[in-house]
Description:
single chain; 107 residues; mainly alpha; 5 helices; extended
Amino acid sequence: RGARYILGGAPVSYAELNRVIAEALGYGRRRGLVLPAGPLLQAGRASSWLRDRARLPLPLTEGLVATGCAELYYSSAKAEQELGWSYRPWREAIVDAVAWLRREARL
């Protein structure tokens, strides 16, 4: 049977990732809005309830909020060891992605 590998890179928090994306987009260093997890989870539960009961196409779900509030980090060590896989720095990849999106007039 085959094996599964996580292809990631260095661990990064959502806050740091969003800060670097904002800088790459030219927004500079701005303090992001941090919302408390409790009310967000309640909003996710309510949204999921409305989505299921009233069949409303709401994009926010309890699962999405729970995932966004969790500190999830994954390791690519298995892929690195068994496949010789390597990754480039994520900050560099974001800068290149923003440049490409601008060149393609998608941003």
